[in-house]
Amino acid sequence: MIKEAGPSTPLELSGIDMVPDAGEHFYTTKTLQRAENVAKQYRDKERQRQLASQTKVTLDNFAETIKAGETNYLRVVLKADVQGSIDVLNKTLSEVGNDEVAVKVIHSAVGGVTESDVLLADASDAIVVGFHVVANAVVRDIADHRKVEIRNYRVIYDLVDDIKSALEGMLAPEVKEEQLGVAEVKQVFKISKVGNIAGCLVNEGVINAKSKIRVVRDDIVVTDNRNIEALRRLKDEAKEVRIGTECGIRIKGFDDLKPGDLLVCFKSVEIARKLEE
């Protein structure tokens, strides 16, 4: 037992009611009452900071909360069995994500999941993540009533994988274009009250009635991303026309067709994106 400690003196401190984070400062006061008042003010200020965020979210519906052009945060209240686990998880979660999506740990502490953790998560639209800790029956009932999600883990890799999957689910998908076929306009027929019908020969692949059309003239795109209003083979409507077959094509909202134009049929394919390792 020592009465005082100078700079760089290692020591063990007992009697505090919560585990401090690494790097936090300790201050001394002349009276116990003054110390309690300062501690209360600090806690009140910290709680107000934690309650500043007001966007509701869970791991399952996280993707629905995204806003284009902004970094979207998955807010987490983190509880664990020991401070070492807290430190590792804070560091690991801070490294998950990119400029579009990321994790924001709004509160982390050692111990089981408490009512105050649930209330904080409810006010901040966060999820509660417990590592080697649990919530008692009363706390679980409060969480169910307030629709706050509590996730419990015993393996850090499972925890990180679930968080990563939630973030990946809200990434905007990569869109790739897949060309289906090309038809050449051989003749243009003007039909009263209908518009121009392109008499075509399919030179490549297949023309699908539900796909998009791009009109190319002398290697220049005249119009793009158009819908097919009508696709006919002889006098019958067709769902698709394959290579080597003649057909009639009516492009919705576009009549400026000329013999020699190429009608490129394509579709857009969305590919789910992954976070980089």
Describe the protein.
By secondary structure, the protein is α+β, with helices and mostly antiparallel strands. The chain folds into 2 domains: 62-168, 3-Layer(aba) Sandwich (Rossmann fold), CATH 3.40.50; 174-271, Translation factors (Elongation Factor Tu (Ef-tu), domain 3). It has helices at residues 32-50, 83-94, 115-124, 137-146, 156-168; strands at residues 72-80, 101-110, 127-131, 150-153, 174-191, 195-208, 212-217, 220-233, 236-237, 240-242, 246-251, 262-271. The strands form 2 sheets. A 6-stranded antiparallel β-barrel has the order 5-6-11-8-7-12. Strands 2-1-3-4 form a 4-stranded parallel sheet, with helices on both faces. A hairpin with a 2-residue loop joins strand 8 (220-233) and strand 9. The chain is rod-shaped, with a radius of gyration of 31 Å. The model has no long low-confidence stretch (mean pLDDT 86).
**Strand arrangement in the largest pleated sheet:** 5-6-11-8-7-12
Number of structurally distinct domains: 2
Query: In this structure, how is the largest beta sheet organized?
Result: 6 strands, antiparallel, barrel
Q: What shape does the CA trace take?
A: rod-shaped
Q: Strands, helices and their partners?
A:
Elements: H1 32-50, E1 72-80, H2 83-94, E2 101-110, H3 115-124, E3 127-131, H4 137-146, E4 150-153, H5 156-168, E5 174-191, E6 195-208, E7 212-217, E8 220-233, E9 236-237, E10 240-242, E11 246-251, E12 262-271
Parallel strand pairs: 1-2, 1-3, 3-4
Antiparallel strand pairs: 5-6, 5-12, 6-10, 6-11, 7-8, 7-12, 8-9, 8-11
